């Protein structure tokens, strides 16, 4: 079977690679995607006919679908994620490394014939605005229609990406297979995948290629996102002097009409989407959303750091999303959305824990079983997701397609910490801010396979996403700070919305009320207000925090800014032990920052 490329692309390297992969995977047929709406609709209809998708009630949620995965394919598999650099030391102590030649042998074996009986889809996509110098083109080959329709929402895909690629442009080859070939006429499972120990999520940072096998879950299979836009992009960013980060980007406008852009980094499922689409409770303040998960940042000629969001949609965590917590997300997902592993209502709509005050009497759970109110089991998986177009967000930024990106005034780091970390503080300078990112810890969530609630170090919220030695990544951040002068560098902040009292109750209201903290950050960027030096950093003076109408007790306020010295001594020991992993890759600047913190606490 030959492939007719004539109306698609005349890029010879691309054609040769597709032919090579077709010969390896031996699909029954090949579909070259054009990214048209008609193609998307045909694919969704096919998924519906195959029983993978259920169309939601069009009166409730037009153009939307519900599907459930295999119960063993619900999250990222960090233990099966590999960085195959030539040298082990370049993957570093936080990544799983395998010799690239050995891994290629393994992959060539598992991919051999892996698409028999299936169609192979070729998806050209662009991460970032079409035409932007910051954008990167990838081509994903997959045997999963689910992946194809999700890529349609999450990226700028099809003909427009091919035109941008031209006849000889560079692209990142992204190979994906669910790893379940079919016999002639066999239907196969509705969510084909391999058991966890047979999954491979592999990155070759030298040749800049990605191979993913055995999983259909978004973070493992939509290869533009975590694999390209973070792991491979982080390597490209190091090589070329920019930053690829696990950060949201938002625009914040003051009542006076002044606007600043803020990037914020939190580990997976810690509220990036909620913050990116925040509805400020403070009168007159407005937010628009540039991105909710990934930021690529580069210095402009004026010395300022400019950011683009490489994605075109949101792959958000459903549970907890409601008209109270994130009304803009709820409006975004009102139509044209794919829901994976949420519950289905009897009238053909979706539901998840935390969506409404009233729990429906009866549902079909994410395990496809009848579910009654009061059941011990969750109706929706804690990592159930929506895939939805960014353009549907009521507060989507007009700048989303700006090829130059937006100038960043502040960078925020945050984790999920029940205690120790105060509500907000500002770094003394760029190197101190880099240390705050490097020392970040957070309680684990359901976004990755692992123990939920366990505290782990997650530097820059990039632990699962850095494509090279994390110690070298810290160094890269330090060096980025030397590319511009201090007055142009974004200010760096640390926040913690998740402080709990002795009864395990959150003491800060969070969500829209976080606008109070954004306001303080905004004003600090202009030095409009002073701060209080503490051993951790610069904290707000109480009178500068706009707490009007919150009715916080003095005791609560104290708790929100309490610095527990003995707790910090323990924390420092933990950070020191963690940093020791990086051996001589840990930059001296970071060691000095830890020492300075220790000294400040002992003063
Ligand atoms: C995500 C994640 O899906 O971080 O964004 O896991
Ligand atoms: Mn993420």
Describe the protein.
The protein is α+β, with helices and mostly antiparallel strands. It folds into three domains: 12-52 and 77-241, Phosphoenolpyruvate Carboxykinase, domain 1 (3-Layer(aba) Sandwich), CATH 3.40.449; 244-312 and 397-602, Alpha-Beta Complex (Phosphoenolpyruvate Carboxykinase, domain 3); 314-390, Phosphoenolpyruvate Carboxykinase, domain 2. It is built from 15 helices and 31 strands. The strands form six sheets. Strands 1, 4, 5, 6, 7, 8, 9, 10 and 11 form a nine-stranded mixed beta sheet that branches. Strands 12, 13, 14, 15, 16, 17, 25, 26 and 29 form a nine-stranded mixed beta sheet that branches. α2 (37-49) runs antiparallel to α4, α10 packs across α15 (588-602) and α14 (565-580) runs antiparallel to α15. The longest helix is centred in the middle third of the chain and has 17 residues, at 224-240. The N and C termini lie far apart (75 Å). 51% of the residues are buried. Bound molecules: oxalic acid and manganese (II) ion (MN).
């Amino acid at each position: 079977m030959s492939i007719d490329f004539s109306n698609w692309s005349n890029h010879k390297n691309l054609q040769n690679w597709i032919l090579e992969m077709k010969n390896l995977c031996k699909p029954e047929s090949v579909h070259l995607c054009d990214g048209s709406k008609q193609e998307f609709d045909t694919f969704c209809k096919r998924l519906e006919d195959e029983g993978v998708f259920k169309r939601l009630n069009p009166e409730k949620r037009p153009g939307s679908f519900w599907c459930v995965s295999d119960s063993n394919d619900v999250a990222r598999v960090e233990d099966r994620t590999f960085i195959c650099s030539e040298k082990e030391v370049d993957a570093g102590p936080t990544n799983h490394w395998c010799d690239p030649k050995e891994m290629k042998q393994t992959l060539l074996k598992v991919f051999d014939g892996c698409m028999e009986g299936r169609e192979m889809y070729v998806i050209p996509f662009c991460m970032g605005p079409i035409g932007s110098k910051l954008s990167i083109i990838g081509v994903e080959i997959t045997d999963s229609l689910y992946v194809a329709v999700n890529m349609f929402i999450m990226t700028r895909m099809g003909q427009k990406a091919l035109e941008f690629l031209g006849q000889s442009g560079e692209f990142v080859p992204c190979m994906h297979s669910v790893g379940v070939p079919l016999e002639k006429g066999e239907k196969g499972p509705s969510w084909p995948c391999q058991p966890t120990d047979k999954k491979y999520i592999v990155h070759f940072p030298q040749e800049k290629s990605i191979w993913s096998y055995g999983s259909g879950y978004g973070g493992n299979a939509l290869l533009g996102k975590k694999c390209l836009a973070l792991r491979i992009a982080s390597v490209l960013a190091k090589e070329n002097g920019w930053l690829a980060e696990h950060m949201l980007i938002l625009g914040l406008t003051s009542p006076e009409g002044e606007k600043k852009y803020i990037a914020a980094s939190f580990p997976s499922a810690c509220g990036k989407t909620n913050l990116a689409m925040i509805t400020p409770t403070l009168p007159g303040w407005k937010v628009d959303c540039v991105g909710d998960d990934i930021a690529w940042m580069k210095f402009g000629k004026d010395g300022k750091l400019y950011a683009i969001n490489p994605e075109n949609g949101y792959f958000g965590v459903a549970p907890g999303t409601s008209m109270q917590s994130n009304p803009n997300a709820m409006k975004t997902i009102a139509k044209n959305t794919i829901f994976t592993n949420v519950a289905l209502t009897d009238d053909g709509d979706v539901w998840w824990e935390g969506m409404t005050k009233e729990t429906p009497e009866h549902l079909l759970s994410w395990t496809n079983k009848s579910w009654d109110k009061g059941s011990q089991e969750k109706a929706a998986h804690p990592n159930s997701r929506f895939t939805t177009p960014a353009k549907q967000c009521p507060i989507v930024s007009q700048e989303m397609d700006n090829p130059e990106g937006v100038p960043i005034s502040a960078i925020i780091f945050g984790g999920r910490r029940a205690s120790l970390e105060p509500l907000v503080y500002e770094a003394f300078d760029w190197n101190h801010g880099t240390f705050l990112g490097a020392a970040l810890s957070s309680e684990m969530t359901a976004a990755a396979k692992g123990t939920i609630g366990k505290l782990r170090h997650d530097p820059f919220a990039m632990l699962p996403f850095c494509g090279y030695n994390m110690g070298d990544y810290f160094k890269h951040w330090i060096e980025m700070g030397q590319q511009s002068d201090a007055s142009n560098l974004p200010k760096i902040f640390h926040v913690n919305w998740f402080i709990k009292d002795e009864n395990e109750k959150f003491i800060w209201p969070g969500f829209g009320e976080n606008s109070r903290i954004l306001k303080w950050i905004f004003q600090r960027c202009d030095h409009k207000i002073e701060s209080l030096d503490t051993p951790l950093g610069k904290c707000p003076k109480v009178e500068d925090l706009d707490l009007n109408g919150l009715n916080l007790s003095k005791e609560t306020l104290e708790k929100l800014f309490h610095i527990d010295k003995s707790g910090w001594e323990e924390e420092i020991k933990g950070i020191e032990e963690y940093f020791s992993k990086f051996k001589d890759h840990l930059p001296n600047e970071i060691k000095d920052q830890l020492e300075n913190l220790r000294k400040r606490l002992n003063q």
